[in-house]
Design brief:
The protein contains six helices and no strands. The protein has 157 residues and is mainly α. α4 runs antiparallel to α5 and α4 runs parallel beside α6.
């Protein structure tokens, strides 16, 4: 149980390997989540607007509100779980440097507001759609950065 108190992973190579594998899995999840949202909703304003509001000329129906709520529920849950895992490994691997609290706060705020902005875009129009695209992109970029830093420190230790 010494590994719970100490941040040194050298005496416990199995724990370091486990944290490395989990970090790689979380980074893969982040990349695949971007691909999934690009396919389901669209990451450009035009594609996302067509998914949310439909397109009469192309005979595209708008997304059902129940489907949108299900997607938002899944996004909120998975964002919270994946961020808790990645950030806990990141905080554990920060040895002597000051933790960038602003970075982590921005990461969590962007991750939790992105699904809510998607609902706002469904009811409020394209202004909120740009907010969703920005928040979604921001939280994935920050999460990939935090995960990459943690992975770099895991491999180096």
């Amino acid at each position: 149980m010494k590994f719970l108190v100490s941040k040194d992973t050298a005496p416990t190579p199995l724990l370091r390997q486990l944290m490395t594998a989990v970090t790689v899995a979380m980074l893969l999840y982040m990349l695949l989540d971007v691909a999934l949202h690009g396919y389901l909703i669209g990451l450009s304003p035009q594609a996302a607007a067509q998914t949310l509001y439909g397109n009469e000329e192309a005979f595209v129906e708008p997304i059902l509100f129940e489907s949108l709520l299900l997607q938002v529920h899944i996004d909120l849950f998975m964002a919270l779980v994946s961020l808790l895992i990645v950030v806990s490994i990141y905080l554990r691997m920060k040895h002597k440097e000051k933790v960038r609290k602003g970075l982590l706060h921005a990461l969590f705020l962007a991750a939790l507001t992105a699904p809510l902005l998607l609902i706002a875009a469904y009811f409020g129009g394209s202004f909120w759609l740009y907010g969703w695209i920005g928040a979604f992109s921001l939280w994935h970029l920050l999460a990939l950065f935090v995960g990459t830093v943690a992975l770099k420190r895991l491999i180096a230790s």
